[in-house]
Amino acid sequence: MKVRCGNFKMAGFISCAGGAFTFRTSSLQERRAVAVNVQHVARRRVGPCMQGYSDSRPLLEYFESLNRKPEDVERLRDQASVIVGSGRLGTFLANVGRGDDLVLPKGGLIPPDHPGPVYACVPAAQLETVVSACPESKLEDLVLVQEGAVESLFRRLGLQDNTRAHLCFCIPRLGGKPREMVAEDAADEDDGLTLVTGKWATAFAERIERAELKCSVVFSQAYRRGYFEKLVWLSALHLIGSVHGGLSLSETAAQHRDELEDLTYELARFIRFGLAVSLLHGTADRACLYAATMAHVKADVREDFDLRCGFFYGFAELAKAKGLESPVPMLTDYMEDGKARGLIDW
Q: Which domain of life does the protein's organism represent (predicted)?
């Protein structure tokens, strides 16, 4: 299991008392004093400046991890768990467990006194059913593995701070061996791209590593980067493959690499400037690696439309209603031209 830390930028005051780190945001008077001092320094020296962000959550999350006691870490390791859903992922998680998990169908009542995590292995459209059957005391223990543009769904259900996993492996059939998407890191070593963040992150990572899969425990900032990158892969691969006659994802990446590079660049740029999340260099390369693990999947722009291409197309429609150009013109052209020629529909 790999633990990754990100960079944290914010203004505030940090102190350590009694061995525990604390953080407090600055008062208005303190911020004004800092601003005056910065202006004074700026008059004396001109040079590159660093952009600051006001979101304190990444730094607070970091200091919470420093304050975590050893007994808390041990308590949150892999253990008897509740698994909701007996599809490919739910069955896989149960198979790599210790044999003491409780496996429930979607809508099955989750025991309120169960001490372990609750893996919600259901599609995004069925997540609300799981939440309805979950006691309030166990809501914070839900582990979310849904993909696509699901952040607004998580917020609506009050799950935005839950454990979330960005999966970069696939299970081609029920009970089958998982196929992992692997890239080369800076040290030229195989580096798994599966990420997990939140309360039960260590437990999840330990569990899937029993299947010899790689998983990195990260802070939420790094998780969101992976989350949005996979959204780009899914949207680009399914759209391009669909307008070219319903190719498999692996055929799409192999036969239309130039188009894939252009579209992933466009969507990544929109996420950077529209949603303030910067994706790492090499998004198209990783999209091809992802496609190689999904050779059995046919491109279908209609599948989970609102959670993939429809997420980006919604911004194009909003811009059009305001008399503005589409922020994602290539995606817009492909979708509208493909629909006009009867190649795709939604």
A: Eukaryota
> What is the value of pTM for the model shown?
0.78
Region 258-279 average pLDDT: 96
Q: Do the Cβ atoms of 200 and 166 come closer than 8 Å?
A: no
Whether the CB-CB separation of 56 and 25 falls below 8 Å is answered with yes
Average pLDDT, integer, range 273-301: 92
Look at the block and give the residue holding tokens 């830390």.
Answer: 5
Both 270 and 145 in a single domain? no
Do 213 and 229 share a domain, yes or no?
Answer: no
Give the integer Cα–Cα distance in Å for 9 and 59: 8
- In percent, how much of the chain has pLDDT > 70? 76
CA distance linking residue 78 with residue 204, whole number of Å = 7
**pLDDT of the residue at 47:** 36
Q: Which residues of 37-61 are buried (b: 16+ CB within 10 A; e: fewer)?
A: eeeeeeeeeeeeeeeeeeeeebbeb
Cα 252 from Cα 292, distance rounded (Å): 10
The answer to the question of residue 171 being in a domain is yes
Does 209 fall in a domain?
A: yes
C-alpha 284/C-alpha 252 separation (Å) is 12
Output b/e per residue, 106-124; b: 16+ Cβ within 10 A: bebebeeebebbbbbbbeb
Instruction: Give the pLDDT confidence score for residue 30 in this predicted structure.
Output: 46
Q: How far is CA 105 from the centre of its chain?
A: 25
**Nearest alpha carbon to residue 124 among 103, 145, 155:** 145
Query: How high is the mean pLDDT of the chain?
Result: 83
∠ CA 315-148-144, nearest 5°, is 135
Q: Is residue 327 part of a domain?
A: yes
Within a domain: residue 185? yes
Per DSSP, the three-state class of 1 is: coil
Q: Three-state SS for 268?
A: helix
Question: By residue range, what is the domain housing residue 290?
Answer: 222-340
Task: Indicate whether 264 and 137 sit together in one domain.
Answer: no
Give 298's contacts (C-beta < 8 A, 6+ positions apart): 241, 246, 247, 248, 249
